[in-house]
Predict the structure of TLP18.3, Psb32 and MOLO-1 founding protein of phosphatase.
Amino acid sequence: MTAGDRELTAGPMLAQQPEPTAETSQLAAAEHRAELIEEHHYGQPEVLEGPFSTRQLLRLDEALRTADRATGLTFSVYVGELEEPVRDHAERMHQQLPHVASAVLVAVSPNQRVLEVVTGGDARRRIPDRDAKLAALSMVAAFGGGDLAGGIISGLDQLATRAGRG
């Protein structure tokens, strides 16, 4: 983990888009998450094999939605390989998220044993680097115990709790 303009931490991919309107929010968020956990092969989506069971994916999805609703920020999770330098790769992924200033990315690469938490400017004011590092340490402890999904869910909860209502 490094401090700087943004805080970084690391795992496979899930994400949630912000909710533009009450009527389109659930559909748009579900479609975006589906895009992030599918691989497009000749225009046809194909579900990726990954470290999570269906139940764990549902729990992660709910944790993302809960964090978004509770804070007004946009939380996303990426689990997979990160290119070197890892920080730069996580920051580039963060820059591709909608509403970058209020976006929080948790990027985890289990094989590389790396966790990065990247926060946009508005999100960082609500989740200081120290608090992001504490959430990251908690996630790493869970990962060490073999609980990747539980660690991410716990970390999202800690980050959202620290951010509070926006």
The domain at 14-163 is CATH 3.10.310.50 (Diaminopimelate Epimerase; Chain A, domain 1). The CA atoms of residues 67 and 160 lie 5 Å apart.
